[in-house]
Amino acid sequence: MAESAKSAGWRLFDQIVSDAPLRAVNPWRRGESGAPEYVPDYDTLRLLLGVPLLLRANSQSGVPALALDVWAAYEMRRAGFDPDRVWPREEVPRVLPAEVTTLMSGLPRALAAEVRERIATGKVRGITLASANLLGKNYVKQVDVVMSSWQTGPELMISTKRMDSSFGKNAANRVEESYGDAKNLRLRHPQSGLGFFYSLRSTALTEEPDKAAWLIDLLAKLGREDDAYDAVGLIIPEWDDHLEIDEYGDDDPDPLVAAGIEPPSEADPGDAPADLPAEDVAGSIARLPEVRLRLDEVPAELDPARFLAVMVGRVLANCPINFHIEARARLRAAGGAFR
Fold first, then answer.
1. What pLDDT digit, counting tens, does each position of 249-276 carry?
2. Residue 76 lies in a domain
3. Is 277 within the bounds of a domain?
4. What pTM was estimated for this model as a whole?
5. N or C: more exposed end of the chain, with fewer CB within 10 A?
6. Are 98 and 84 contacting, i.e. CB atoms less than 8 angstroms apart?
7. Element holding 297 (H helix, E strand)
């Protein structure tokens, strides 16, 4: 049976992140003013954004949105946060309580391997999920990037959205949803770092410039609310027209559902990444289409570097000094204040 786009996407995402040259490099540097500056790994982001283009995966496959989730989680690990507490994880299962990994690390090797296999294949239920679903003030919300543990509860929550087409039709809906989600999560988790990361394809700037300007302005205002998001980030990716992916709008019905076919569950362990020869993965990564980032069109208030810096700073400022030791050390190395 052919591998699903989501499984293939995860294989490529995992390899890109694993091979990233800046993976172990401190993202903080001392700026000209002496204050620390966050330096995102944009090269890795470009590669991740190329995966759905290579796979011809539309938004309903989940792969385009995952590119943003994987990068945001990768950056939080670069900042020094515990890899097992940042979801999605870098291996199956993508959402797994850190306490479970701690338990497995203390088991005899053979038993730990058996437990890990049973969890990864879904034989033990109730331990892992395909996505992080958090209770807000009034309803449960799927959050794309989360850092949490039993002891602390959610410390970091980042929602991601991307819009590659149908700008005029869907822009208002996405902004309205983001306002409601922010209030819902903030009112239950007031001390958590709460962020919103948005991707808007560059064609919006030329096809519907007025709508694009309106949306960018709203995103900036969304990050100024005291009881909503701590920060909002924006990227504007650009790729060649011949790489266009056939899409249908976010509000259009799923073709499978319309045809009376039940789509596979995201929690289905059969959708986990397959083990394929390494040269197949490497060859696919070498063929990734070029994706450029129009950082020149992103306002300073929505700059991804600022967004990531605010997210890290919010977490460190709202927990005891003996929490997240490695993250504090990396920031301190660049002259940061969270000692």
1. 444 444 333 333 333 344 443 344 444 5
2. yes
3. no
4. 0.87
5. N
6. yes
7. none
Which amino acid belongs to residue 186? R
Q: Which residues contact 35 (CB under 8 A, 6 or more apart)?
A: 335
233 falls within a domain: yes
Asked if 19 and 291 touch (Cβ cutoff 8 Å), the reply is no
Same domain, 119 and 171: no
CA 318, 320, 325 angle in degrees (round to 5)?
Answer: 105
Taking every pair of C-alpha atoms in the chain, what is the biggest distance, in angstroms?
Answer: 61
109 and 186 housed in the same domain: no
Instruction: Say if residue 181 is in the same domain as residue 227.
Output: yes
What is the average pLDDT across 85-109?
86
Strand partners, 303: none
Q: Where are the alpha helices (DSSP H) in the chain?
A: 5-19, 42-55, 63-78, 98-105, 109-120, 167-188, 203-207, 209-222, 255-258, 278-286, 304-317, 325-332
**Residue keyed to tokens 């946060």:** 81
Written as six digits, the tokens of 71 are 């990068």
226 and 118 fall within a common domain: no
pLDDT at residue 176 tops 90: no
Q: Could you tell me if residue 212 is inside a domain?
A: yes
| Residue 282 or residue 172, greater confidence | 282
Q: What is the DSSP letter of 272?
A: S
CA nearest to 200, candidates 174, 225, 231: 174
Q: By residue range, what is the domain housing residue 29?
A: 5-88+130-260+287-332
Same domain, 118 and 140: no
Overall number of domains in the chain: 2
Answer yes or no: do 121 and 136 share one domain: no
Q: How confident is the model at residue 227 (pLDDT cuts 50, 70, 90)?
A: confident
